[in-house]
Fold this protein.
Amino acid sequence: MKKMKNIYWDIVKNVADERAIDEYKAIKIWSEIVGKRTSKVTSPIKIINGKMIVKVKNSVWRNELVMLKEEILKKYENRLENRIVKDIKFM
């Protein structure tokens, strides 16, 4: 018997294109990529043409994340099969 999670993904794959699924996965794992502390002050909004838009609590955190951007991108590259996140814009 298929688990509900697998059935859900079968349905999603039939309705959405592969890129949309990859973008959803990238946003879903944001907290795993950046950690609990950072995820509490950030919120990934969407991905447009490979650029992830992330809302940040304040300018201090934004500056910190700008300095960590390459490290975050590397983590995404190592974690996801497709290089769906090519850049990050912190707002």
About this structure: DSSP finds five helices and three strands in the chain. The radius of gyration is 14 Å. The first strand starts at residue 42 and ends at 48.
